[in-house]
Design a protein that fits this description.
Residues 2-94 form the DUF1330 domain. It holds the Pfam family DUF1330. This is DUF1330 domain-containing protein. InterPro entries: Dimeric_a/b-barrel, DUF1330. α1 packs antiparallel against α3. This protein is of the alpha+beta class and 95 residues long. Helices cover 31% and strands 33% of the residues. Strands 2-3-1-4 form a 4-stranded antiparallel β-sheet. It has a single domain, classed as Alpha-Beta Plaits (2-Layer Sandwich).
């Protein structure tokens, strides 16, 4: 069953660092069969506060998604994102 890591960005703090993060972190998805489905396209809040940006990544299952998020391949880049933006990251199970 697929699982999705969803990043919702509330505020951009450093665009150049965020751009660097995207370039560096994207290859870390490969070994975990992660597929980026959404990358900061147009966004409209239907309920609640609007987000400034969003990223959705599909993985084969929850365990693989968690393994990627905590992996040594992704860990150095996670801090870049956290320092460049204010937002949330959630892991959801698909159908």
């Amino acid at each position: 069953m697929s699982a999705y890591v969803i990043f919702l960005r509330d505020q951009m703090l450093d665009q150049s660092e965020y751009d660097r993060y995207l370039q560096l972190a994207a290859p870390s998805l490969t070994n975990y069969n992660g597929e980026m489905l959404v990358l900061n396209g147009a966004i409209q809040a239907l309920e609640g506060a609007p987000a400034d940006g969003s990223v959705v990544i599909r993985f084969p299952d929850m365990a693989t998604a968690r393994a990627w998020y905590n992996s040594p391949e992704y860990a150095p880049y996670r801090d870049i994102r956290i320092n460049a933006t204010i937002g949330r990251a959630v892991l959801v199970n698909g159908l």
